[in-house]
Design goal:
There is one protein chain. This protein has 278 residues and is mainly β. The protein has one domain (5-274): Tachylectin-2, Chain A (5 Propeller), CATH 2.115.10. 2% of the residues lie in helices and 51% in strands. A five-stranded mixed β-sheet has the order 6-10-9-8-7, with no helix packed on it. Strands 11, 12, 13, 14 and 15 form a five-stranded antiparallel β-sheet that branches. A hairpin with a 7-residue loop joins strand 18 and strand 19 (230-232).
């Protein structure tokens, strides 16, 4: 099916990740590489349509390189996790813990990601009963016969350290309800809903000028089993024609709806509202 969307124009800097902010707006990350011009973190105000760069203090961590996902830490109003994707040149991608207050952000700590099969493009968190966080990471996949994988770890908020199980490192493959075609990336972002459902986006392009197409689909739901925290239960896919969806978050004004951002390469970024329930 083709997705009924509300398009928010004009175009913006390409968007690679989205999260709700604590000031009734949205925080967007951008896949800017070291040495490139452009914001790494921006604030989008839906009431005015304005997106402005957020001042980030990177002194404790160094500059991020190729941010691909961001999520508000479950149970916190002002703390976030943002994740890099690029492994270009043998570099090790980082996951950053960040704070955002009064329009400014601080990158507080960075963590090396383990070696995973695919570049990571999405992150989500769920606070557990013991106060620790379940952290989900979406590895994008490379093609129809090499689907993305969902990985997971436990983050101790007291020690600020990650624990990875063998199962979490190996992850579980995520196939699409139906394929987009050669070169598809199964997981271009992930988003947990308040009721514990996990949604994902998939994207495909044929170059920086397109054509672009995407799917937004339900992956499954939280199982309560730490050894395998997500039960795969693929739901109906919502098709997005002409855009490459790379960022998902919950809608700030419509309960049970998604707000999403696109990276349309040469044509920049857009924000859209999904007119379907999640």
């Amino acid at each position: 099916m083709k997705l009924n969307i509300e398009a928010h124009r004009p175009q913006y800097q390409s968007i690679s990740g989205l999260a709700r902010s604590n000031d009734s707006a949205y925080l967007a990350v951008h896949d800017i590489k070291v040495g490139q011009e452009g914001a790494r973190l921006s604030r989008y105000e839906p009431n005015t349509g304005e997106m402005e760069a957020v001042e980030v203090d990177w002194s404790a961590t160094g500059l991020a390189d190729d941010l691909e996902g961001i999520t508000q830490i479950d149970g916190s109003d002002d703390h976030y996790m943002a994740v890099e994707g690029s492994r270009w040149g043998g570099r090790t991608p980082q996951l950053f813990t960040m704070s955002y207050r009064d329009g400014k952000a601080v990158a507080e700590k960075k963590h090396d990601l383990p070696e995973l099969p695919h570049e990571v493009e999405g992150v989500a968190t769920k606070k557990l009963e013991d106060g620790n966080l379940l952290v989900l990471l979406g590895g994008r996949g490379e093609d129809i016969d090499d689907p993305g994988r969902l990985h997971w770890a436990i983050y101790d908020q007291q020690s600020e350290e990650f624990s990875w199980s063998k199962e979490g490192l190996e992850g579980t493959p995520v196939s699409l309800p139906h394929d987009l075609g050669p070169g598809q990336r199964t997981l271009s972002d992930i988003q947990l809903t308040p009721n514990g459902d996990l949604w994902g986006s998939a994207a495909r392009d044929e170059g920086d000028e397109g054509p672009f197409e995407s799917l937004i689909y339900k992956i499954g739901n939280l199982s309560g089993n730490s050894a395998n925290p997500v039960t795969l239960n693929l739901g109906e896919a919502h098709y997005v024609e002409g855009s490459k969806v790379e960022a998902l978050t919950m809608h700030g004004e419509r309960p049970n709806s998604l707000f999403f951002g696109c990276d349309n390469e040469t044509y920049g970024g857009t924000f859209n509202s999904g007119l379907f329930s999640v």
